[in-house]
Amino acid sequence: xxxWLIGIGMGRVEHxxxxxxAAINRADLILIPRKGEEKAELAQARRRICDxxxxxxxxxxxxxxxxxxxxxxxxxxxxxxxxxxxxxxWERVIAVHPGALRVALLIWGDPALYDSSLRIxxxxxxxxxxxxxxxxxxxxxxxxxxxxxxxxxxIGAPFLVTxxxxxxxxGWPAGVDTLVVMxxxxxxxxxxxxxxxxxxxxxxxxxxxxxxxAGPLSEAGPRIVAARQAARDxxxxxxxxxxxxxxxxxxxxxxxxxxxxRP
Length: 263
Fold this sequence. Notes:
By secondary structure, the protein is α/β, with parallel strands linked by helices. The protein has helices at 18-26, 40-53, 75-96, 117-127, 140-148, 164-170, 217-235; strands spanning 2-7, 29-34, 60-65, 102-107, 131-135, 160-163, 178-182, 197-203, 211-216, 240-246.
């Protein structure tokens, strides 16, 4: 058995590579996760992609409900238990289709960046005779820099991709002037001293509902907080990402006076 993790960018047909389209059409079974009513649009986007590019009449689409992550055992323990529960969901759906030798999942963005699918697939590979294949997709950080028409890095300089939780807990990492922050549900940029820092923010990047804001952090920050809340209230869910860049040579921004406490 083969499991194919296919990057689909921001869920638009235009973001698919020719390799992704070919992999979709080679699949015997495509698993489509459901994440509750609030995120029903994500499952619908995957189905729309299949409606537009799937020409193999033998391919079966099978939806399943994703389990909810339990954080009572701490962050890392909760994530590991969640991965195991999802792997169990995959196994149960696959067992209903014993003739499926190529099983595919359409992965938002790219499977390599802050996505659990490769780790979950590895759990199945350890238990079953199966191989894992990956088709890369456009990442949200590429969508962000494209939306703002900016380079990801300064000339010859490094950048760091991190999470909102780590930014809140640890502040600005040493040795880099450019940060890309993902998985931030708490506007963690508010914990930084905004002096000398610019922000480029985007929600639903690459999607029809794309929203972007940019500017000095002191000015753009409040606009982003308001826009993010309005978008979440309107749509019931939000996916956003932002890039922070400080003036070269400036010290790492310290905590602002309103720095958030550890969650």
